[in-house]
Amino acid sequence: MVDAAVARGGPHVLVNNAGGWTAGEQQYPWAAPDDWIASIALNLTAPMLLTQLVLEPMRRLGGGAIVTIGSSAGSGEAAYGSPEYAATKAGLVRLTTSLSGLDAEHGVRVMCAVPDWIGLERAQAQLAARTPADRAATPPLIPPADVVAVVLDLISTGRGGTVVELWGGQEPITRQPG
Hints:
The protein has a single domain, classed as Rossmann fold (3-Layer(aba) Sandwich). It contains 7 helices and 5 strands, in the order αβαβααβαααββ. It has helices at residues 2-7, 33-60, 83-98, 102-106, 121-128, 132-137, 144-157, and strands at residues 13-16, 64-69, 108-115, 163-166, 173-175. It has a 5-stranded mixed beta sheet, sandwiched between helices. The two termini are 34 Å apart.
């Protein structure tokens, strides 16, 4: 993929947008190690590898933008149904802030969008299946277009190390390094 982008004069932008829970009913600590390790590989290792692969080509081009999609699952201290998923999404935020120096050193800006529950079909169906009381207590789902708008804004004007949180019914919260 990176070779194809280089052959076409890029890459200038990478959006790391992977996410998934451990397959099956069991999550960490009850899931088999191979199952939860696969979740870590998808949610944390893959974005790290892709970031590493595009870094040198972007540097040669004079810079670029990398936006990783995190999740509100990685925020806070409350219990979460898939601890391995939550840990990887928290790791993406820290990876982003840890790489903020790449902006000054190589012209590559690494940023992260951290949405709460996005209003995709699956989320809408899961919300509809909840009790009326649970639905009433759930913040509004994030419109997918809002996530896209934040990502496009980060690509065009974001500063390396920036993390933008999107919470249902609220304005985005932008945290910048330093």
